[in-house]
Amino acid sequence: MEEVLLISRFMTRTLILLSLLFVWIPLGVVCSTGNASASPGSSLKPKVINIGALFTLNSVIGRAAKPAIEAAIDDVNSNPNILHGVELKLLLHDTNCSGFFGTMEALQLMGSGVFVAIGPQSSGIAHVISHVGNELHVPLLSFGATDPTLSSLQYPYFIRTTHSDYFQMYAIADLVDYYGWREVIAIFVDDDYGRSGISVLGDALAKKRGKISFKAAFSPGDPKSKINDLLVEVNLMESRVYVVHVNPDTGLNIFSVAKALNMMGGGYVWIATDWLPSYLDSMEAVDPETMNILQGVVALRHYTPDTNLKKSFMSSWNNLKYKETAGPAGFNSYALYAYDSVWLAAHALDNFLNEGGNLSFSNDPNLRDENGSMLHLTSLRVFNGGQQLLQTLLRLNFTGLSGQIQFTLDKHLVHPAYDVLNIGGTGTRRIGYWSNYSHFSIVPPEDLYTKPPNISAGSQHLYSVIWPGEATATPKGWVFPNNGQPLRIAVPNRVGYKEFVSKDKSPSGVRGYCIDVFEAAMNLLPYAVPRTYMLYGDGKRNPSYNELISRVAQNKFDAAVGDITIVTNRTKIVDFTQPYRESGLVVVAPVKEAKSNPWAFLKPFTREMWFVTAAFFLFVGAVVWILEHRKNHEFRGSPSQQLVTIFWRNHREQFGALGADHMAIRSSDHQFKLHC
User: Fold this and answer.
1) pLDDT over 90, % of the chain
2) Closest by alpha carbon to 28, among 379, 383, 361?
């Protein structure tokens, strides 16, 4: 039902947008392959192939992507080993940081005869344009849309050429678990990019027995006054671990407001996603005031191996002719992904043409203009070779500036990895790496790919961190909130063994050995912990301890104190303290006064058992007499003599009256006696 509603909303929005399409798409636009069109069935290669690019030019990511894409176009066209004389022509459209205008520009781009599009940068626009790409069979190679939900089967023509935020959120969850924190507060921009990323973070933390205690969302255009109100509300809460997942163009406002509220001091933990390193890397000279408000922040950045190819590109970055200014300004990791996206399209088009692919378009029967319509829907045509080009893209495997370009079955780039950075002084310091292969390490991820994966706790290593307030000790990550509630401590209301725990008329309402141990432990803490004891059970019968443990796991209680046994199934859902009393192996028996009795030797067996034993004794004696009396002279004589012999002989055989003087060995046919 949810999918139907989403599609309906999309169709409604698309119809509204298409009603304005004639403003941007001229009447004479037709779809061609450039200067030379290829008709269906023709094997001739075109002279020019149009590829599109769609992103916000005046943005942190856009200022890095534009010169990288244009440099890649030049490198492809000047390389004689690819496309072999076919020129790539770039059609660049600016989304102007607007969902509405971005959608309009994307539709205009699709009507310009492009066979593949680089972009979009925005996750929100990607959701809309991916439906258009599906209908027109035009692959989208996005270097900046990191929304995890874009990887779904709903968008087959959407290919992400950077890493999904799915992996980044799992890296943050591992970081939270590494330092022993259990709750975080998520501060994020309220759009597709922010909501989807934080949703994955919640799932990742749940697998680590953590959670997002509060989601602080704000709109992309909110002024600092609203951000101030949001952070004031956040500061009243218990958790002091903040995960900031926002856009690089406006995200710095969060930290400037936090600095003004004294939230960048000791005891606070700030974790930023890759938006912050992207912003800092793109600045030629970072403002000292900016660095001052970011002291102690831990951030993640896309990891790209330091290959010679990457070093060569970075050395030439300062003098790229397509940059607005000379120098290192504008560069960040998205420039590498944008550059590789062009080469990915070039390799795919080269293979497509070599395999006899046909670069042609056809009309979509579902897109037609009614009489008098000014929409010009017929300018949007279907790329006939779109499916073949899509499969070619997904099969490619080559080394680019960002590393290995190869896709998994889920259309993710292989080997997702991140740098873990600590901001301090006038720059950033790398404290380790995170990879989906071995999680945290202090050696580059590519050095670990040749070894078996190891994600055990003992193999996880990071260098030391200087936290906000220049603290070197790991913050505990929480404080007593100004509007908080005392801990809810569940106590089993038992019927028996009340020495361990029982109801009481004291102010706490409970007493017992377990309560004394718990209170002694709490008194050792260097700070006070407000708590209230809550009895579990009616006091008429012992409560179910499994249900009590389940209620703690469901956060209906914060903890439980009592004579609770540590068993395997319970340790899977809650954490236990070290056992303070161990029963060991015991035998429970009733206590009775022992009396001397000459017949006490009969007590191990019941009366019936003794009768059965006697019956078997007589039966065995009779069998022995039947087998022996004809050959053995000892079984002959008077009946009384034979009866005595039967009992005596049977007693010797069964109870060893003659001692262990022989060993019987029996086979299927014979019996032997070995005498000692």
Assistant:
1) 50
2) 379
